[in-house]
Structure prediction request, 636 residues.
Amino acid sequence: MSFRISSMEEYREVYRKSVEQPEAFWAEIAGSFLWKKKWDRVLDWNFKEPDIRWFSGGTLNITENCLDRHLETRADQPAIIWEPNDPEEHHRVLTYRQLHQKVCLFANVLKNNGAKKGDRICIYMPMVPELAIAVLACARIGAVHSVVFGGFSAQSIADRIQDAQCELVITADGGFRGNKEVPLKNVIDDALVQCPSVRRVIVLTRNRTPVSMIKGRDVWWEDEIKKAETLGMLDCPAEEMDAEDMLFILYTSGSTGKPKGVVHTCGGYMVYTGYTFKTVFQYEPGDVHFCTADIGWITGHSYIVYGPLSQGATTLIFEGVPTWPDAGRFWDVVDKFKVNVLYTAPTAIRSLMQSGLEYVEGHDLSSLKVLGSVGEPINQEAWHWYHEHIGKKRCPVVDTWWQTETGGILISPIAGVTPAKPSYATLPLPGVQPVLVDEKGEEIEGNGVSGNLCIRFPWPGMLRTTYGDHERCRTNYFAAYDNLYFTGDGCLRDEDGYYRITGRVDDVINVSGHRIGTAEVENAINMHSDVIESAVVGFPHDIKGQGIYAFVISEQHLNDSDLTAKDIAMTVSRIIGPIARPDKIQFVPGLPKTRSGKIMRRILRKIAEGDLVNLGDTSTLLDPSVVDEIRNGRIA
Ligand code: WTA
Prediction:
């Protein structure tokens, strides 16, 4: 299986086969990877419990697929190109040989620090090559990594570390983001006050900011590397992992309570990310692949690290932000490294679009072959700008729909094959069986329809459980509809059978492509001492896609509402992180509640959107007059 699909006829043929004989289809794809022992059974599954097992009996190590197997053919090819935040600082290139050496060495450092197969390791680092090295070193020894995005606060990290009972943390003194420095180690120190499970912290030197090193707990990355080198511990055999052994945990927000630890396993995740990387982008050997996500999100896991490396690609890691030193930074990077595939988020596109074309001009973008979009619906205007001004109408745009839980892309054009339609993720990849259902769970057949998006059959990259709480996984994804995986997204299927994702249908907001649970933000707001109660909804935002609108009951604001609002916003930053900071805070005398005490968010959503007329039926409210007051106080 070469993963190459060159025409729509071929796509339809392959797709048909993938549905009629899914096991044969996936076995052929899995056969292109390196297994220590071949699997006995391709698939066992039921969505009731759920219990999903791919490639049972097979053993492997994903890092042998990402590193060792390329040493014969492309040892001196760049595996990672790293562009630092500051354009004045020198970039770095790691060949496959060098990356292999560094991963082995650091894997030994982990072992020297007591880490072993099955241990959970939290990684909280800036976007430097050592982040990828840390991730791969965990996988090398069979430890389970839990990467936490560098923008999360101490409390969010502590929650994640406690949930997974991590024993080791890998971090850096600090990091750079645009013109800011981020005090990563300080944040970790604050988090660890609540985390007795952590025995060891390994600290990489990045920005040389002073940090406190706790005796017996904290060690420097560089010192540990030297020790391992001195001991001659250069080689590290890859741990033999069962296909269904855990590879990593990645936390993501749901509609209720704390973030869930989505669990991915070694075999299926490897097969799925490699397959989708190659298929969607139609990656060709030698191409430079630039995914602008942070490795702290699933997009970075799958399409900066594992997908590209398993396919022997050159992957570009960029430490900085698109708008610093100016809004031409992405185009500098594309020009400098002759990037062939650019994969970014609609938020970035909209923000660069707003900065004006002068930042695009003067850059040679002719190396680009494929443009990708991910994380949120891309509006038509942004799609056209991307296609016209970045791709110069030469490059196919792949609008890739997927989720943390799906491990890799499920619905997307295949570059150069699937005719695009702006704002449509278009068609399912071979092996993926989407269905639309109505509220009652009845399948909606035919074209020109919309409903809730579900998937009918397993694919190797799907989540297996939520860490430590399998029941939560079941109720969240498999209980809403019988025998279906429920995505939480609304979706339309047009006359051509093309899919267009319309957004979340649950209480999750997608801010700049990042999932934020309204309940989480409300919990953080409610921690502020002046707050009595709150309700949070999303509203359309020109750049971020959705913004966060908070309705808050507080007595204090009567004295100084601006100050109280700022304090509340600050509390949310402290508790979750700046990404969850509300854009608008409106003080209200009450919330629209039903007689049973349920907040009617539908009404709040309408008001936040600015639709003050069609509020729907308010007669079931306990106190309908509150709606008028909220409406009158709306923040435009
Ligand atoms: C949304 C990111 C429209 C969707 C990979 C999904 C999208 C959530 C698209 C998952 C797209 C992602 N078009 N919406 N191309 N891609 N989404 O877990 O609502 O961070 O459920 O994974 O982002 O976000 P997550």
The radius of gyration is 24 Å. Residues 8-321+400-450 form a domain with the Rossmann fold fold (CATH 3.40.50.12780). The longest helix spans residues 96-112. The pocket of WTA is lined by residues 252, 297-299, 374-377, 399-404, 425, 487-489, 501, 504, 510, 515 (CB under 6 Å).
